[in-house]
Design brief:
The complex is a heterodimer of chains A (101) and B (215). Helix content of chain A is 63%, strand content 21%. Chain A has six helices and three strands. In chain A, strands 1-3-2 form a three-stranded antiparallel β-sheet. The two termini of chain A are 15 Å apart. In chain B, 77% of the residues lie in helices and 1% in strands. Chain B contains nine helices and one strand, in the order ααααβααααα. In chain B, helix 2 packs antiparallel against helix 3 and helix 2 packs antiparallel against helix 4. Chain B is globular. Classes of the chains: A alpha+beta (101), B mainly alpha (215). At the A-B interface, helix 3, strand 1, helix 4, helix 5 and strand 2 of A face helix 1 and strand 1 of B. Strand 1 of chain A pairs antiparallel with strand 1 of chain B, so a sheet runs across the interface.
């Protein structure tokens, strides 16, 4: 298999999906963000956002905390250490792929 | 294709989209203007002037602390209910970077102090120098986050500094006028940004619980 194709094939599939890539990119520069912020920044519907966050959580890349601010329910999302490392690796690999092609 | 860098930059920029940071920063500059005005108004060599000189560090520290608390308060009341809560990572600068920052700040402070002690004819340059220094700082910041209005503010800082010096209002009175004018400009820029933000981002109606469990 050619090296550039190998690079593409080895990309993390959980992160590579466009909506999840946008989510991890946002979460990589923040400490934590709530559901409303992520929905607004990504333009995803509630259902879509929920499903992508669930996938990231399932992979151990994001942690989701259900809490309250006053009486208002708050869903706080943050990238886990594994998620941050996976995103960093994805970013480097993808950059290398773009340079080679 | 998803432009990762663009998303990362836009996320960082989102902190400034409500204008609250500029309003708080403008308030700090206005406070500094007030402080320098009090120093200029105090009789030369008086105890009040000495006390004000000693209080300088306290004024800077407390105004920055107060501004950050007020900023947080208004973010909670205005921004988070409209566009969501986000906490940004605190940058942990290494000891080398901290020492370099302290050295640069020390050199700038010492140069200004030396300039001030030279002669009244040189002191007239103080507003222009303050304007230029802040313009460079704002320019770096504007370049980093990529918001056009901060480039305009950087230009305005230099222009106000030079205008005050050119008008012959040098020395501490000129510095006070510079901080007053620049503070007002920054706060006004923030207010205009806030008005646009409030128009664009109405408070969403209360809905059912959100998040992955809400489906």
């Amino acid at each position: 298999m050619p090296a550039d194709v190998r690079l593409l094939a080895d990309l993390d599939k959980v992160i590579h999906e466009p909506a999840r890539l946008a989510l991890t990119a946002i979460l990589s520069v923040v400490e934590s963000a709530d559901f409303l912020y992520l929905q607004r920044e990504t333009g995803l519907t509630k259902g879509n956002l929920s499903s992508h966050l669930a996938k990231l959580e399932e992979a151990g890349y994001a942690s989701i905390e259900k809490t309250y601010r006053g009486r208002v329910p708050l869903t706080l999302v943050r990238l886990t250490d594994a998620g941050a490392a996976a995103y960093k690796a994805y970013r480097a690999r993808f950059k290398r792929f773009l340079e080679k092609t | 294709m998803v432009d990762i860098e663009k998303i990362e930059k836009r996320t960082v920029r989102s902190f400034y989209e409500d204008g609250l940071f500029e309003i708080a920063l403008g308030a700090v500059f206005l406070l500094l203007g007030g402080y320098f005005f009090a120093q200029a108004a105090a009789p030369e060599g008086s105890t009040l002037q000495d006390v004000l000189s000693i209080l300088f560090v306290f004024v800077i520290g407390s105004s920055a602390f107060l501004a950050s608390r007020i900023l947080r308060f208004f973010k909670r009341r205005i921004t988070y209910p409209r566009t969501g809560y986000v906490a940004f990572k605190k940058k942990d600068s290494g000891p080398g970077k901290r020492v370099a920052t302290a050295v640069v700040a020390g050199i700038i402070g010492a140069s200004l102090a030396a300039l001030y002690s030279l002669s009244p004819s040189v002191r007239v340059l103080l507003p222009a120098l303050n304007g230029l220094l802040l313009a460079v700082a704002v320019l770096f910041f504007a370049n980093k986050i990529g918001l056009v209005r901060f480039f305009v503010l950087a230009g305005l800082s230099a222009a106000i500094g030079f205008a005050v010096t050119a008008a012959g209002i040098g020395d501490i009175k000129g510095v006070s006028l510079y901080y007053g004018l620049f503070g007002a400009a920054v706060a006004l820029s923030g207010l205009a940004t806030l008005v646009v933000y409030l128009r664009r981002s109405p408070r969403p109606a209360a809905e059912a619980p959100e998040g992955p469990d809400a489906r």
